[in-house]
Fold these 2 entries.
Entry 1:
Amino acid sequence: MIIEKYKVERPALAIHGGAGRWERAKAEEEKYLDVLEKSLLKGYEHLRSRNNRIESVIEAIKVLEDSMIYNAGSGSSLNIAGEREMDAGLMDGESLKAGAVTLVKNTKNPIELAYLIYRYTDHMIIGCHGAEKIAEYYRLEKPPAIPKHVFDRYKETLKNIDKVEYIRRNKDLIDIYKEEIYGTVGAVAIDIDGKLAAATSTGGIMLKLPGRIGDTPIPGSGFYSDSYVACSATGIGESILSISLCRSIALHYRYTKDLEKSVIEAFRELERIWGKNTAGIIAISNNNTLIFAYNTTAMARGYKDPNNIYYRIF
Ligand code: GLY
């Protein structure tokens, strides 16, 4: 597992653009890095000028969702039927309030829709037509057509479906996913007062079965924030769900008060069952420690605080 640890100054924002092998991105790394930088600058501006941690993670994620090249929003991977089915969620560490949407097809920015659930409903997770109805009511933008490169990748994978051994049990599904994970985007923020927020958005794993729900819209799994830790996860949803990865890290932190140890402990548990090449996280604690960790080849990641901006994939 690769771990990077930073001591940041407040306010600070960190993002990820998915853990995986990133084979295809090698030739176009600049394009991906450019989007990471834009996302950090946009999200950080909301944190700096308004001290609004929730807005900052939303704004950072919207840049990634709109980029067409990360697996979230307009660039989402397609399910086996060739459709987008997007998930997103966010959580405020102070109130423990969360909002999430799942299996959304007709919304350009699922993270915005998750925010509407958080802000205007009594619920935490709303799926499918129920979520779309709220998007319609609030007149959220519809997504653009599926980009050609996403559709080409879908067709190519579909053509080789025998090789990728797609429709087998979850353990085998992981083997497909090891081939290419352009999975998921996320953000965590700490404001000037040390309050935290987390958010995650995804198109899910490529060629998933229609109706499959991964970790991303589930508080505690794909995202989590309390007063001590904010965390966003990426990778194979089933592995992350099985140990509630983000909440596991937060719970370990309550006892250890050591974020790095907490992340290592949670990954040990995850890897015991699911092995390597399965997940990545970004996590920040209220004592300003930031961790990037992944057991894949690479993870698009970055952070910005008052003094530094940092972003990379490999
Ligand atoms: N981590 C994204 C997913 O499995 O859907």
Note: The longest strand covers residues 12-20.
Entry 2:
Amino acid sequence: MDKSTDDFVQGHADDYGGQLFVWAIAVDTDPGVDDVLAILLALASPELEILAYVVSFGNTDVHAAYENIYRLYQAVGRQIASHPEDKARFPNFSPEVAPILVLGPDGPLEGGRHHAQYFHGRDGLGDVSQSHPDLNVHSEDRSSVFRGNFSVTTKSAVEVVLDLLQSKPKRSITYIALGPLTGLALLLRGHGAVVRENIGRVVIMGGALDVPGNSTPVAEFNIYADAHAANEVLSFDTPERGLPPNRVVLLPLDITTVHELRFPFYVKHIDPTFESTRKPSVASTKSPLVHFSSAFFERTREVMIEFGKDAMELHDIVAIWCALENPPDLTDNDDGLPVMSSSWAVVKRKFAIERTGELTTGMMVVDRRDDPTAYAPGSNRAQVQSLLERHHQSHGLLESIALPAQVETEDLVPPSSGTVSRTGIPCVVQTPGADALLCLLTKRVWGVDV
Ligand code: RIB
Ligand code: CA
């Protein structure tokens, strides 16, 4: 963590009564490939404490996703068993800070399930359950895998998160969503007031504003997989609904996609023997953790090369990075923007989420009517439109003067699906950069300085 961020976090600790408050995080995740790498980064990050994993459907079905937490903990446990010096590298892999593992939603609020198994494999982890059965966690091994490193519960995800929100200092918890927003929507439906009063910050990986989608031409997967939930969480028209807008930090594809782990870089610095499913990783030739990551990267690499990119996009990893470098801030108020550490920046964007479009489900319909840069200079239709609305003019004469003739006058009714968020949602537009993340990731997860 750079010095400025370190001071930033220490400064915030003072705000919470002087103790060095380790940031608590509830991770709502659909462990797939980038989720697992993101959780490895969280386990290796002293700035935060993982309070719970809410495992959700998404990249694969919820039960397969749940298994991947066990595979991940087994791999870290094997790494520490074979390299005891690495224990210090994973401060969050310890019985002293054992998170709760809870089974979250197994499907969207409405509509059918959309998984991303084409990318993440049936098991959500590049089909390692078939290609590397040594990475599977057998029932007799479970107790050793999570030997106090996490606790399991039969409580619902809503109960677990609610208990946590009410057990820690107000506004000290960051809820980080790495998958569909179903769990967060259910929490808000039942306990919105408690969430708004107690949540510190909500960091969400999801959406696509000014770039193409990755599940459809216009929709990003986490939003597409449950557009109704996203609409309930992200677009609200009164303070009594949804999240406190200035404690939300959204990371859409616009900012996450440019952060990538190029596989030639991984071969050069982490695993010289890594290739793809054509040359499966051999456990005896490398450390347990490198064997684990190489195993689940094999299919990922092949799929990404089909997409024309010999790299993995670090979507969820950027979200964890954002959360650990930008802890909750008690001065976040309803008029401004969330306080961010230096090298990070957010801007507010207004959009509505399409829930039932034949081609546009999950699209973030951006409202550019107030954006003077949306048109060529000199024809700011937003001003003309508000003039029309103000004077309740039918278009007729005024249109021929005010609107450029070639522009169709659209219906003045606001978007039919969803509600444009009243003040806009803070969206990350600047990070310390892709290289900074790569250095942090390789150092913390694999212990390699680059
Ligand atoms: O669009 C990227 C997101 O969808 C990531 O969270 C990835 O894990 C998938 O869930
Ligand atoms: Ca995810």
Note: Residues 30, 32, 35, 58-59, 178-179, 316 surround calcium ion (ligand 2) (CB under 6 Å).
